[in-house]
């Protein structure tokens, strides 16, 4: 029976806890927390004059409300976080788990600290710096640290077992403490300077380096003074790139929010010691709940997922359960943290700046979507498709001299890659170099599953020409599939009769083969539809070749012992250690094999016969 606000709200407890909204199919569509559940849910269903977007939206889909009562509001906050992660409700703000956060880790308690990239900070006593939301940003930071501060980055096992310095030492990015006599106190000082740099205390670090450079120059240690000079220049260059936005030298995260209906953009300005280091932007759709609820849930998820908690968090609105959320942030940080909504002064101006950034990010994201959607519309028209190709799947075959054939499937949704749906296929039924047969096998496997699961793309693209297209069309016809467009994308080809004045061959346009069309359709250069199709094809090539190389490498380093039942890694190592090599194992008698620890007479006989068969086949 559908949820009736007039009667069902009164049955809800007026106690702290979590409420779960379900649709008619029983799926959880929203999870919220409250100090008083009944009062909070009642706010969603005001008078008929309430025109708020989320009220209209919930009344269309809500079927029931389930509650989980907790002892206090803080327990409700933590429970909300866990339930959102577990159920991924479609109307909550959803963050990826903490694998999306990159951090730098330094354990300064060990003898020779290293700098390493990690995804999940742990409570292990080490120092973590970040998060870095892009690989490019963390690579830039690592390059600067390795070039000017020279901390090792090798793992502990490599460090302990080296017999001579590695390439990092040769290019002067590590002093080589693994094998060379390095001053430990100087190395520890370098470590402390790196941590000052990563903490954003670059003014303080610059002052220290300037004093050390002057001292070294006075003592005529010019090489050391030059090293301090280079470090100082790198620090000052990084400071020049940062905008001073706050005279208070503390760490702050400033939140901005912009909304149009159910579309929402949240921006976080990351201010460290008064300087704007960067910003992060998150876009959400179908967000019918009020800004205060969205921000409260977002902040809870963001910091619970591993983002470091600064000294102050500034928000543009009064949040529900703001005091409890502030206490939770303090527990995560392990120190005093302020969650504030400033109304005037410099802090208010920071919130205004964050709001402008959120508005800019919102329209930038919408513009990119418009461009992509426009490209898909033009692609539909250009290729005479029956469907707007929202979901495109591209298939490619990769083989080398007929060995280890594999196929790839890459997926684009809305004109951009959806890497979670990429798939590899091992060719099982076709032998030799029958490219058409391999394509048929892969398409049959994919489309049969798609029919069973009712999961078919709008457009199938096969890499190749008319032959591959005819194979794909035959598979679609054999399976009785209707309403799916199929095309083949062929690479551009050299026009042998013409050439540029400098001798560079003139190439044709990228060509698309269509069903029942004799000549291929060229895609004009510098168009959005060309970019989508070539990006799709290049991704399919890359994904297939990477998998193929991995398979070849695995086959290259495989051993005849691997396929023998009863011979695992431990027994294989024991055999090779006992006889010195695979040749020694092959030359051994059954009695000699049985003498190896862990190998009895029966297994020895099986090993001897298996190696004999393998030698005969080769």
Structure description:
The chain is of the alpha+beta class and 618 residues long. Among the domains are: 5-92, 3-Layer(aba) Sandwich (GIY-YIG endonuclease); 252-364, Ribonuclease H-like superfamily/Ribonuclease H (Nucleotidyltransferase, domain 5, 2-Layer Sandwich); 391-542, Nucleotidyltransferase, domain 5, CATH 3.30.420; 560-617, Orthogonal Bundle (DNA polymerase, domain 1). Helices cover 44% and strands 20% of the residues. It contains 20 helices and 22 strands. Strands 13, 14, 15, 16, 17, 18, 21 and 22 form an eight-stranded mixed beta sheet that branches. Helix 15 links the parallel strand 17 (459-463) and strand 18. Helix 4 crosses helix 12. The longest helix has 38 residues, at 345-382.
Task: Write the topology of this structure.
Blueprint: H1 5-8, E1 17-22, E2 28-34, H2 37-42, H3 53-61, E3 64-69, H4 73-87, E4 102-106, E5 115-118, E6 127-132, H5 135-148, H6 156-161, H7 167-170, H8 184-198, H9 202-218, H10 222-240, E7 243-244, E8 252-260, E9 263-272, E10 275-284, H11 291-304, E11 312-314, H12 322-333, E12 338-340, H13 345-382, E13 391-400, E14 403-413, E15 416-417, E16 423-426, H14 435-453, E17 459-463, H15 466-478, E18 485-490, E19 494-499, E20 505-507, E21 510-513, E22 521-523, H16 528-556, H17 569-579, H18 582-587, H19 590-594, H20 601-617
Parallel strand pairs: 8-11, 11-12, 13-17, 17-18
Antiparallel strand pairs: 1-2, 1-3, 4-5, 4-6, 7-10, 8-9, 9-10, 13-14, 14-15, 14-16, 18-21, 19-20, 21-22
Helix pairs in contact: 4-11, 4-12, 9-10, 11-12, 13-16, 14-15
């Amino acid at each position: 029976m559908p949820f009736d606000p007039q009667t069902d709200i009164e049955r809800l407890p007026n106690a702290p806890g979590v409420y779960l909204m379900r649709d008619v199919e029983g799926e959880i569509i929203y999870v919220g927390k409250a100090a008083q559940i009944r009062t909070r849910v009642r706010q969603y269903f005001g008078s008929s004059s309430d025109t708020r977007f989320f009220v209209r939206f919930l009344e269309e889909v809500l079927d029931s409300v389930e509650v989980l009562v907790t002892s206090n509001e803080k327990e409700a906050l933590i429970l909300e976080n866990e339930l959102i992660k577990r159920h991924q409700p479609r109307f909550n703000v959803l963050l990826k788990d903490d694998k999306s956060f990159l951090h730098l880790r330094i354990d300064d308690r060990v003898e020779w600290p290293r700098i390493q990239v990690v995804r999940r900070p742990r409570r292990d006593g080490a120092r973590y710096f970040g998060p870095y939301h892009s690989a490019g940003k963390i690579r830039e930071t690592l390059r600067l640290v390795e070039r000017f501060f020279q901390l090792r980055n090798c793992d502990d096992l490599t460090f302990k077992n080296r017999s001579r310095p590695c390439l990092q030492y040769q290019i002067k990015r590590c002093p080589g403490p693994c094998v060379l006599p390095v001053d430990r106190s100087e190395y520890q000082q370098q470590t402390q300077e790196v941590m000052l740099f990563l903490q954003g205390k670059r003014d303080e670090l610059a002052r220290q380096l300037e004093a050390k450079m002057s001292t070294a120059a006075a003592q005529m240690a010019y090489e050391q003074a030059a090293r301090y000079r280079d470090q100082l220049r790198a620090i000052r260059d990084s400071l020049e790139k940062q905008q001073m936005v706050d005279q208070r030298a503390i760490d702050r995260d400033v939140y901005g929010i912009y909304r149009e209906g159910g579309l929402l953009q949240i921006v976080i300005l990351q201010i460290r010691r008064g300087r704007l280091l960067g910003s992060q932007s998150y876009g959400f759709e179908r967000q019918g709940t009020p800004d205060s609820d969205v921000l409260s849930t977002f902040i809870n998820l963001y910091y619970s997922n591993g983002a470091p908690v600064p000294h102050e968090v500034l928000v543009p609105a009064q949040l529900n359960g703001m005091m409890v959320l502030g206490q939770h942030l303090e527990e995560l940080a392990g120190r005093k943290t302020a969650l504030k909504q400033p109304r005037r002064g410099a802090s208010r101006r920071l919130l205004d700046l964050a709001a402008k950034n959120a508005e800019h990010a919102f329209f930038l994201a919408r513009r990119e979507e418009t461009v992509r959607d426009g490209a898909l519309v033009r692609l539909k028209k250009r290729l005479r498709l029956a469907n707007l190709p929202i979901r495109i799947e591209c298939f490619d075959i990769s083989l080398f001299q007929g060995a280890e054939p594999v196929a790839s499937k890459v997926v684009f949704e809305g004109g951009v890659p959806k890497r979670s749906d990429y798939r590899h296929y091992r060719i099982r039924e076709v032998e030799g170099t029958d490219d058409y047969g391999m394509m048929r096998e892969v398409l049959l496997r994919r489309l049969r599953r798609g029919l069973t699961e009712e999961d078919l793309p709008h457009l199938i693209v096969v890499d190749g020409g008319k032959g591959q297209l005819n194979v794909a069309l035959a598979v679609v016809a054999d399976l009785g599939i209707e309403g799916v467009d199929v095309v083949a994308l062929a690479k551009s080809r050299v026009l042998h009769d013409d050439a540029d004045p400098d001798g560079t061959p003139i190439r044709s346009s990228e060509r698309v083969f269509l069903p029942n069309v004799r000549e291929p359709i060229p895609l004009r250069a510098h168009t959005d539809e060309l970019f989508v199709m070539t990006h799709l094809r290049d991704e399919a090539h890359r994904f297939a070749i990477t998998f193929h190389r991995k398979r070849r490498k695995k086959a290259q380093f495989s051993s005849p012992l691997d396929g023998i039942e009863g011979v695992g890694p431990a027994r294989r190592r024991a055999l090779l250690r006992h006889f010195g090599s695979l040749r020694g194992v092959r030359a051994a008698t059954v009695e000699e094999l049985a003498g190896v620890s862990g190998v009895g007479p029966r297994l020895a006989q099986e090993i001897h016969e298996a190696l004999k068969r393998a030698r005969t086949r080769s």
